[in-house]
Amino acid sequence: MPKRILEGLVVSDKGDKTVVVKVERTILHPVLKKTVRKSKRYHAHDENNAYKTGESIRIIECAPKSKLKTWEVLPREAN
Predict the structure, then answer these.
(1) Which ranges constitute the DSSP H helices of the chain?
(2) Which family, according to the similarity comment (predicted)?
(3) Is residue 33 situated within a structural domain?
(4) How many CA atoms lie within 13 A of 40 on its CB side?
(5) Residuewise pLDDT in 10s, the chain (79 residues)
(6) CATH number of the domain to which 60 belongs
(7) What's the whole-model pTM score?
(8) Given CB 3.0 to 4.6 Å as the disulfide criterion, which of 16, 37, 49, 71 pairs with 44?
(9) Cα separation of 16 and 73, whole Å?
(10) Domain count, the chain
């Protein structure tokens, strides 16, 4: 099964080698038929502490690295 890739905003970089990423989704409400924004926070492994609060990043699923971390930050693409 392919690994999921999500895009979100770094909301915390206080942990060592860890960032907290907020991922927002839009869904259609089943009864009201309105578009609703839902968000979830993921703890992701950042080996080099390269990302800071406010940056937009992509994360990918990985094997569990700790109790909360099951995601890794995808490195920036070289331009």
Answers:
(1) none
(2) Belongs to the universal ribosomal protein uS17 family.
(3) yes
(4) 7
(5) 889 999 999 999 999 999 999 999 999 999 999 999 999 999 999 999 999 999 999 999 999 999 999 999 998 874 4
(6) 2.40.50.140
(7) 0.88
(8) 71
(9) 14
(10) 1
